[in-house]
Design a protein that fits this description.
Length: 97
């Protein structure tokens, strides 16, 4: 494979990974944060827009993300029994009151 084909395959690999955006709700564990992801879906029968949420455990190697931060997480290899996501970037820093 040429260098261009290798780069193209890496870009395709990145595009195929799932990414989610959510708020950090817990940073108490070492190298792990809990991210709350809220999605809005239409109810099947009544048609009302309903908010559904899920919590994901994400790997944070440097312990740099704190509660209230809005982050993007991407799917990766399993780090532990419950942790198969890694923080890819910080979108918004938590507001300090």
């Amino acid at each position: 494979m040429t260098e261009l084909e290798v780069v193209a395959s890496e870009v395709l690999k990145l595009k195929n990974t799932r990414t989610l955006v959510g708020e950090v709700v817990s940073d108490k564990r070492s190298k792990t944060i809990t991210v709350l992801v809220v999605r809005r879906t239409k109810h099947a029968l009544y048609g009302k827009i309903v908010a559904k949420s899920s919590k994901y455990h994400a790997h944070d190697e440097a312990n740099e993300y704190k509660m209230g931060d809005v982050v993007e997480i991407s799917e990766t290899r399993p780090y532990s029994k419950t942790k198969a996501w890694v923080v890819s970037r910080l979108l918004q820093k938590a507001r300090v009151v």
